[in-house]
Amino acid sequence: MKKTLLSALLLAASFAAQADETLLSRQYGACMSRPDVTTAGMHACISAETARQDKGLNAAYQSLQQGIAPARKPKLLDAQRAWLKFRDANCSFQADPDGGTLAGVNAAACVMQMTADRAKELSDFAAEVAGR
User: Fold this and answer.
1) What is the pTM assigned to this prediction?
2) In sequence order, what DSSP letters do the residues of 49-67 get, joined into one string?
3) Strand locations in the chain, DSSP E?
4) How far, in Å, CA of 35 to CA of 80, rounded?
5) How far apart are CA 62 and CA 126, in angstroms?
6) DSSP, residue by residue, 24-40
7) Containing structural domain, residue 90
8) What pLDDT tens digit does each residue of the chain (132 aa) get?
9) Is the Cα torsion angle 72, 74, 77, 82 positive or negative in sign?
10) Rounded to whole angstroms, how far apart are CA atoms 79 and 58?
């Protein structure tokens, strides 16, 4: 049992090291850094951060959509749908059925990080469009 907890703590530290801390909230960092974090706790931390990042992604998408020419809007929608499909397939693959309980944590962290990355990408595009 202690070995499992130690593994979970090491994994939590690994996620914190791999994540782009400039894109993720302080709440997420604090949540994952708790000394008593469990696998279920990691899922809760990741789920809450994914919700925050999804909200930012939606805001960035709306901002970009409002700033581009009407002819480009269908292309943005197609790109976003394709990205969502890729994110979900990519992160689902990371849920290795032989990976134990932490495989689900890996998949959830993948969704969280990819969502944060995409939110930044769309936000940067929106800022570029607004600066023209």
Assistant:
1) 0.83
2) HHHHHHHHHHHHHHHHHHH
3) none
4) 37
5) 9
6) S-HHHHHHHT-TT--HH
7) 2-130
8) 444 444 444 444 444 445 667 899 999 999 999 998 999 999 999 999 999 999 999 999 999 999 999 999 999 999 999 999 999 999 999 888 888 888 999 999 999 999 999 999 999 999 999 887
9) negative
10) 14
DSSP-assigned letter for residue 132: -
Closest CA to 31 of 16, 45, 20: 45
Q: Can you tell me which residue has the tokens 């397939």?
A: 89
Residue 71 corresponds to which tokens in the numbers above?
């002819």
Q: Which amino acid is at 113?
A: Q
Q: Note whether 91 and 111 are within 8 A (CB).
A: yes
Give the CATH number for residue 122. Answer: 1.20.1270.180
Domain count, the chain: 1
